[in-house]
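Saturday, quiet lab. Running sequence design on the structure tokens for the scaffold JK sent over.
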């Protein structure tokens, strides 16, 4: 019977190390296969950050939409190559006191028609802050004359637009009404061919013709001078 070979301690130690290494390699390969088949999850911190970022974007967009909706609407914007001449388009307007007035009832007088966009809660653009001040100054000397009249045609699309507060704040003594109180911009649309915009002032002479259109602001002195010329014509 052959004698059984006895392995040295070093050989046995190498065999154990080899088995351990193979076992670790097998375990590592198994972990790698599981990682490839398992759905990838975001780290908790990154997931929370992503949710917060999305919420912030939607909040910012909603806030922007809200404040954009509060701004005064756009008036006109069309530019006529050759502005029309002739009779001023007639219209009816209900002032903020509930009285119905028409442009034709002022026939034979010089009429100043001021167009003003009003946002929710009464916001108006700087052009109208300036123009209302100039109109008040001009009206102090002209509105007492029975041969001159001023009307402000507002475009207020929000129920919260308080024209009464604007009238009080700027000392408006002339007729003010909302073109959009019936949901239709019929007055603005009739005067768009004259290249009106927010803050424009249209002067109508005694023969009911459009005599002058001021856009971008007109001083009280210029307005008074032109109205006086039209009154003397």
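Result came back. Writing it out in full:
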């Amino acid at each position: 019977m052959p004698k059984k070979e006895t392995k040295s301690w070093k050989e046995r130690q190498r065999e154990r190390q080899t088995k351990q290494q193979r076992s670790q390699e097998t375990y590592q390969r198994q972990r790698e296969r599981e990682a490839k088949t398992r759905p990838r999850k975001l780290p908790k911190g990154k997931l929370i950050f992503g949710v917060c970022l999305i919420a912030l974007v939607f909040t910012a967009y909603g806030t922007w939409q809200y404040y954009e909706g509060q701004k005064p609407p756009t008036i006109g914007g069309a530019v006529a190559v050759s502005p029309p001449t002739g009779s001023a388009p007639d219209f009816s307007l209900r002032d903020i006191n509930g009285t119905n007035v028409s442009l034709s009832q002022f026939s034979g007088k010089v009429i100043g028609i001021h167009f003003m966009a009003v946002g929710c809660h009464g916001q108006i653009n700087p052009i109208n802050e300036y123009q209302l001040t100039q109109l008040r100054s001009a009206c102090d000397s002209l509105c007492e004359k029975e041969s001159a009249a001023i009307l402000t045609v507002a475009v207020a699309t929000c129920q919260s637009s308080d024209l009464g507060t604007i009238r009080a704040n700027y000392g408006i003594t002339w007729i003010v009404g909302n073109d959009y109180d019936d949901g239709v911009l019929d007055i603005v649309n009739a005067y768009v061919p004259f290249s009106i915009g927010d803050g424009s002032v249209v002067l109508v002479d005694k023969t009911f013709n459009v005599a002058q259109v001021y856009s971008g602001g007109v001083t009280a002195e210029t307005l008074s001078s032109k109205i006086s010329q039209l009154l003397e014509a």
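Notes for JK: The chain has two domains: 12-70, 92-232. The first helix runs from residue 9 to 37. Ask whether to fix the surface positions before the next round.
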